[in-house]
User: Fold this.
Amino acid sequence: MLYIEDNAALIITEDIIEQRPYHDDYKDIKWAECGLRKYLNGEFYDKFNDTDKSRIIEVTNKNLDNPWYGTKGGDDTKDSIFLLGIEDVVCRYFGDSSKKLQNRSKKQNYWFQRKDENNNKRIAKFMDYDYWWWLRSPGRINRVAAYVHGNPGGCVGINGNSVFFRSFGAERDGGVRPALWLKREL
Assistant:
């Protein structure tokens, strides 16, 4: 559980549950249109039973521009299942490193603060290895998406990784850590 607000809880998988490309083609794409969003809110969501679905809260996600490169994040989306954004992992749910995000050093071209004290909170495993996982935020261009790096552990790749790594083989696809808001039982 990442956060509790009123009668709802924001939850995310503890570790990476699978590897998938962000999109099914290497082209400019934003969260609103990407294949991973369609999968999470379609096939993945449909695996829940009716009782669980009734507890999942559809939310409006603001898809912010990349804070370092200004790459457009796109339209707000209504999602039942989603990925976290850069601001979520840097400023809100894994410690507050917002001052470092807002005051980028000249040495920071690709990763947010490789030595940030909150990086260890962002680490996730896939098959017992620290592995990288997707964020819904754009990278430096819309053909890449931001991510949390597996090694060096937990630093945020604001520059981004290719939205379609499949050309390098499925084993290079990004990790998926779905998040959702859940009605709390009182």
The helical segments are 35-44, 50-55, 86-92, 98-102, 119-122.
